[in-house]
Amino acid sequence: MAAVQVSESDQIKQFKEFLGTYNKVTENCFMDCVKDFTTREVKAEESSCSESCLQKYLKMTQRISMRFQEYHIQQNEALAAKAGLLGQPR
């Protein structure tokens, strides 16, 4: 079985999308969690908030991905049923 080849331009595009998402999440969590700029130290509350923010984002992304896959499976099954490929008595 042949491996799927991804072109270099597609790899660059995917990496740019990843970086854009990473930057957005980083900025959102920073803006929500970091409040004290009077010291260079990261306070425990800021660190905990940042970790929770990232975990929430990752869980949300995973859940959306699962729902997206479920939706596509349902759509494919509906198309197959409409085409008469599923549910026919033998």
How does this model look, in words?
- This is Mitochondrial import inner membrane translocase subunit.
- One of its GO terms (cellular component) is mitochondrial intermembrane space chaperone complex.
- Keywords: Chaperone, Disulfide bond, Membrane, Metal-binding, Mitochondrion, Mitochondrion inner membrane, Protein transport, Translocation, Transport, Zinc.
- By secondary structure, the protein is an all-alpha fold.
- The protein has a domain at 23-81: Mitochondrial import inner membrane translocase subunit tim13 like domains (Helix Hairpins, Orthogonal Bundle).
- Helix content is 72%, strand content 0%.
- It has helices at residues 8-33, 44-82.
- It starts with 7 loop residues before the first helix and ends in an 8-residue tail after the last helix.
Keywords summarizing the entry:
90 residues; Helix Hairpins; mainly alpha; 72% helix
In short:
It is built from 2 helices and no strands. The protein has 90 residues and is an all-alpha fold. 0% of the residues are buried.
Low-confidence stretches: none
Round the Cα radius of gyration to an integer and report it: 22 Å
Q: What CATH architecture label of one domain applies?
A: Orthogonal Bundle
Cα distance spanning the termini = 33 Å
Counted by DSSP, the helix tally is 2
- Give the number of DSSP strands: 0
Task: Give the biggest sheet.
Answer: none
- The chain-level structural class is mainly alpha
Principal-axes geometry comes out as: elongated
CATH superfamily membership of one domain, which one? Answer: Mitochondrial import inner membrane translocase subunit tim13 like domains
CATH class descriptor of one domain: Mainly Alpha
Helix content: over 70%
Mean pLDDT: 89
